[in-house]
Amino acid sequence: MSVLVFVEGLNGEIKKSSLEAASYGSQVAQQLGTTATAVAIGEVHEEALTKLGEQGISKVLYDADDRLKQFVADAYVKVIAKAAQQESAKVLVFSNSNIGAAVGSKLAVRLNGSLATNVTSLPKTDGGQFVVTRGVFSGKAFADVALISDVKIVAVKKNSFEAAHNAGNTATVEKLSAELTDADFAAAPKETVMQDSDGGVLLPEAEIVVSGGRGLKGPKNWHLVEDLAKVLGAATACSKPVSDMDWRPHHEHVGQTGITVSPNLYIAIGISGAIQHLAGVNSSKVIVVINKDPEAPFFKAADYGIVGDAFEIVPKLIEAAKAL
Ligand code: FAD
Fold this sequence. Notes:
The protein is of the alpha/beta class. It folds into two domains: 3-185, Rossmann fold (3-Layer(aba) Sandwich), CATH 3.40.50.620; 203-323, 3-Layer(aba) Sandwich (Rossmann fold), CATH 3.40.50. It is 27% helix and 24% strand. The chain contains nine helices and 16 strands. Strand 12, helix 5 and strand 13 form a beta-alpha-beta unit. The model has no long low-confidence stretch (mean pLDDT 94). It binds flavin-adenine dinucleotide. The site of flavin-adenine dinucleotide has 27 residues, from helix 6, helix 7, strand 15 and helix 9. GO terms for molecular function: electron transfer activity; flavin adenine dinucleotide binding. FAD binds at residues 214, 270-277, 291.
């Protein structure tokens, strides 16, 4: 029996959220007195696979089928299920990303397993139980859930666990073939367009996000968000009304009905902090809020707050960041 971690690649590297999932998986394996294996799919450099040893992974199974370069849920599920079967894995770990959530639910059906998404704790395993804590109601509350089926699937919330970096530890890499057929790709997208924000940084993967709301008054003032993002190497984002009014494109809208981001730093400029907005940003490590209203609800969720006029503060921040 082993723990199996599904790791996602981006531009040949392993995504940060998957490194977190790998560390989580190897800690669970330790708890259960077993080892953690990873399964990687698509285009990932061999060196990146080997380096998963730093997160405590002992072996990586890798399916290099060219058709897996773009995400196709049924094909990915077949590869992960094959790896789980080969390793007799009873605990499967993913990042709670869009891809993780899509394959997690399908795998739960296929393997007759139980699935917990948005998980924020290591399992409690006393007395043969497997109980994890997960965020519910857009992160406003937590629930402890017991996974009672033989196969347990855990999707780990981004930024809830540090990725370990035990330099020098390496994983062995083995080829895996799930013998995919054309039928597995019947529902493949015709084309996948990676939507960059203007800074060239992909919003869901960004380490720093600079986001603007209705307080910026109009698209003509968006240079403030863009300029700050540029000096910080950040992605740009916005609140829903901003994209509804066409000040910014819809792919930048974050929140309950938009994209979920989990950066190390989220800077919110002129955004009130409605619950629907917070739902998409509350797994950010550090939140900085700039708002002229000291009663703005966002300040309750902020690590740092600046009460004042964005049109005075942001230019000063840009100059300060340039001087770093
Ligand atoms: P406002 O609420 O108008 O806030 C503007 C803020 O700017 C205010 O706090 C004000 O004090 C401040 N301000 C004004 N001038 C300045 C200045 N010069 N300097 C500094 N600060 C200034 N919203 C989302 O963002 N994402 C979602 O996914 C989402 N989904 C939704 C789903 C549903 C079903 C519903 C009902 C709503 C949803 N909303 C969502 C909308 C949400 O409820 C809020 O209306 C929205 O987030 C408010 O956007 P805002 O903060 O940009 O604007």
